Amino acid sequence: MGHSGGIWCLWDAGIWDVVVLDYSNQLVHFQVSCNNSDSWFLSACYGSPQRATRRSLWSNIHSLDDNTSLPWCLLGDFNAILHDHERQGGSSKGFSGACNEFQNCVSDSSLIDLAFIGWPFTWKIGNLVDRLDRGLSNLNWQLKFPEAYLKHLLLLKSDHSPICLKIAADPSPNRGRRPFRFLAAWLSHPNFNELVHQSWHVENSWTEGLLNFKNSLKKWNSNVFGDI
């Protein structure tokens, strides 16, 4: 409705050189460079809420992967989840779980889920939360930008959290502290869902719940993954 359901792409022409290579209702594909640096590909995505219509997005991503040699990053609202852990609350009625077609698309295209910091969900309605917005990239892009990560920003007037791609780590006067980053590998661990339920069981506020979840997750990560 209104301005929703489309893709708006804006950039600072004084910083970025951008060439639009391909576009559809669900994807805009660019070649970008900054300050005469080597070019890379960026795709802005908006997956249709309709599963059948969304299949054309997966097909488009497959096609781009077959013709992509440069570093490549994809950002946006895919309107699908990769893992069952990426949904909390709500009713299970009508919920079909993680999107197998999305999983196959990511796997077949050898895409990597970008690490992020912030609340692990990007969409909220009532007591239902999902991670619908994310960043993906190929290995060449990860090698080009090894410190890149996403920030999940605060929900304001939208039911979606904005996501902000940070290509380089933020300079910090306190170099001894590492930022809290949410790793996609956690979602594949069989005990992760139980950790979320146990650590998020806080009655006071979302802020307290998030802090408790973050502290529990850091300890769990150290014990299970060796503090990666």
Automatic annotation (TrEMBL):
<dbReference type="GO" id="GO:0003824">
    <property type="term" value="F:catalytic activity"/>
</dbReference>
<dbReference type="InterPro" id="IPR036691">
    <property type="entry name" value="Endo/exonu/phosph_ase_sf"/>
</dbReference>
<protein>
    <recommendedName>
        <fullName>Endonuclease/exonuclease/phosphatase domain-containing protein</fullName>
    </recommendedName>
</protein>
<dbReference type="InterPro" id="IPR005135">
    <property type="entry name" value="Endo/exonuclease/phosphatase"/>
</dbReference>
<feature type="domain" description="Endonuclease/exonuclease/phosphatase">
    <location>
        <begin position="33"/>
        <end position="150"/>
    </location>
</feature>
<dbReference type="Pfam" id="PF03372">
    <property type="entry name" value="Exo_endo_phos"/>
</dbReference>
